[in-house]
Amino acid sequence: MSLSLFIARRIYRDNDMGKRVSKPAVLIALIGVAIGLAVMIITVSVIAGFKSEVRDKVVGFGSHIQITNADAARSYETRPIVVNDSMVAAISDYSQVKHVQRYSTKPGMIKTADNFQGMVLKGLGPEFDATFFRKSLLEGEIPQFSDSASSNHVVISKELARKLQLKLGDKIDTYYIQDNIRARRLKIVGIYQTNFTEFDNLFLLTDLCLVNRLNNWDKGQVSGVEIEIKDYKKLEETTYQIAADTDGQMDGYAQKYCVRNVEQINPQIFAWLDILDVNIWVILFLMIGVAGFTVVSGLLIIIIERTSMIGILKSLGASNTTIRKTFLWLAVFLIGRGMLWGNIIGLVFYFTQKWLGIFKLDPETYYMDKVPVSFSILLFVLLNVGTLLISVLMLIGPSFLITRIHPANSMRYE
User: Fold this and answer.
1) Segment (H or E) for 28
2) Above 80 in pLDDT, residue 349?
């Protein structure tokens, strides 16, 4: 063990090595580090959780990648493309593709005796992966959708049901305008709630067959195909691979395919989520500054209190470097204790919120009813390592105060 580390441990443990370390200085340093690290852990977990929750809801309504008609306008009144079994099989062969499903949309209107509401009827086939909607299901069930027959069953959002005063089992009249007005009576068999108001106010889920009939499309024609991938980090790469083989190709009706991912389809939402990263960096900078400032203040107070000890060590032949290392090691011990408490506070918040959901949110504003949290071992380690390194680096400058203390002058502090 080096001399610096040995002396620092003795001071830290307060074992008969001169004066007692100033308790207020140590306490301030510990609180500063603990609060700073706890706030950073909480901030990163909440913002990461919020971004993940919003992204998952957007993906849940439209999957990671969509193949649609290249001439389709930015609306739900889509133009069809042919998606046959061979195309689905070809898409499924990509290494990152997890699931492929067809869909069709038809904008329309729900009318009740007292009210009416615009909506989008989304038709889904038997291959539909209902995992996302089952998690959000409040009442009823997600039926087995069909591409060959129509059950006239529909799944509606709680928001639409509330606005139109509908309940499970009710039959609703829906109207669609194309060349003429067409009507369909549908039965509500499920009610879901994702709290993603932008989509909850729009989508009704039903059979692919029904929507294709309303659109007067031929067999095999659909609005598009939704592709779920295995790793979101490879979204751009997978989109490029599929687009390279599909973009611009024509189906049997001379309609061109167009490949877009969820970030390209919803640029405003993902641009908003990217802005949250700036908030993270601002908070990290401020909290590390607070932690570093309190530790620097504490170290300066300890150095001044230990001036006579520094003079004695110098008179015994200890170099400035050795003494500086001693106090830097002491600061590391103090920072470490503060970080321990900061980690405890941050992790207690994370697990409490994850399991109990104590802190609530307004779903109409934040798209969710409670504060979301997400935990990453890598980010947790980086926060701890970064806090320790930056705090120690901030102490190197103040530690040079030791070089200005002379053995003879230090006697006045006795």
Assistant:
1) helix 23-62
2) yes
